[in-house]
Design goal:
Helix content: 40-55%
Strand content: 15-25%
CATH class: Alpha Beta
CATH topology: Rossmann fold
GO molecular function: methyltransferase activity
Keywords: Methyltransferase, Transferase
InterPro entries: Methyltransf_25, SAM-dependent_MTases_sf
Organism: Sulfitobacter noctilucicola
CATH architecture: 3-Layer(aba) Sandwich
Radius of gyration: 18 Å
Domain Methyltransferase: 44-131
C-alpha cells in the first residue's frame, strides 16, 4: 500500500537523533553565556526527539528540562529515552503557549514557525527575573544567494532574512543580545549524516510518496553542502531589556 506524505515523513525521520542541525557545543556555549545555575529550570521548545536534552542537563545537572513538542511521536520518543529520569518532563504542547517560569528557554531551529519577534514576545512571561532565551534561526550569510538556495527556502521560509534582520527582530521584541554564533559544519552533519544513511536504506523499496520525501531531504542536504557559505543557522542568546 502506498504511503501518504505524513507517514512517509515519519518513515524517514523515525528514531533519528535530531530533527535539525545542532551539537552539544552549541548548548554548552549558550548555557555558559547565560550563566545558568546548576539547578536551572529549562524548557526545550519544539524539542523533536530530544537531541539537546543531554547537553542541557550537562550544563545544569541539578536542574530540570521540560521538553515540549506538538508532535506526539516526538514526545513519545523523549519519554522512551528519559522517562526514568526525574529531571525531564515531556509534554505535548504548542510552542506558542508556554506555561511556568524558566531560567532558560531553548529552541533549536523552530522559532520560524512563529517568527522571532512574536516568539520572544510570547515567551517573555515565562522567563524568570534573569532568564534568557537561546534560539537558532536560519538566515542568509550573503546578499546574493544562489538560485538553488533561494528555491529551497521559497516555500518553507519565504521571509528568511540575514543576520542583521534577525538582530532587528530581536530588538523589536525589546530584548538585548548577549551573544551570537553561527552553527558549525559539525552541527549540520550531526543532522544530515544519520539522514543520509536512512535515505540510502529506504530508497530501493520506496513508493512514490516516500520517494518524494526522500528526494526532498536529499536536496536539502546536498544544497547545504554545496552552498553552505550562503546560509546557515545563527544561534542567539537574548534577554529582555
Amino acid at each position: 500500500m502506498a504511503s501518504d506524505p505524513m507517514t512517509a515523513f515519519f518513515q524517514l525521520h523515525r528514531d533519528l537523533p535530531r530533527e535539525g542541525p545542532g551539537e552539544p557545543a552549541d548548548v554548552a556555549w549558550a548555557t555558559e553565556l547565560a550563566a545558568l545555575a546548576p539547578n536551572a529550570q529549562m524548557a526545550d521548545v519544539a524539542c523533536g526527539p530530544g537531541g539537546d536534552i543531554a547537553a542541557l542537563l550537562a550544563a545544569a545537572p541539578e536542574g530540570h528540562v521540560t521538553a515540549l513538542d506538538k508532535t506526539a511521536h516526538f514526545v513519545d520518543a523523549v519519554r522512551a529515552d528519559w522517562g526514568t529520569d526525574g529531571r525531564v518532563t515531556a509534554l505535548k504542547a504548542d510552542m506558542a503557549r508556554i506555561h511556568n517560569s524558566y531560567d532558560l528557554i531553548w529552541c533549536a531551529g523552530a522559532v520560524y514557525f512563529m517568527g522571532v519577534t512574536a516568539a520572544l514576545n510570547a515567551w517573555r512571561k515565562s522567563l524568570t527575573k534573569n532568564g534568557v532565551i537561546a534560539f537558532s534561526e536560519a538566515c542568509w550569510f550573503t546578499d546574493a544567494p544562489s538560485e538553488r538556495a533561494q528555491s529551497l527556502f521559497a516555500t518553507e521560509y519565504p521571509t528568511m532574512t540575514d543576520e542583521a534582520g534577525v538582530q532587528a527582530q530581536i530588538a523589536e521584541a525589546g530584548y538585548e543580545v548577549l551573544g551570537t554564533r553561527r552553527l558549525s559544519d559539525a552541527a549540520w552533519e550531526a543532522y544530515f549524516g544519520p539522514l543520509d544513511e536512512r535515505i540510502a536504506k529506504l530508497t530501493p523499496d520506496a513508493d512514490p510518496a516516500l520517494k518524494a520525501v526522500l528526494d526532498e531531504a536529499w536536496e536539502e542536504a546536498d544544497c547545504w553542502r554545496t552552498h553552505r557559505n550562503e546560509y546557515g543557522y545563527l544561534l542567539s542568546v537574548v534577554r529582555p531589556k
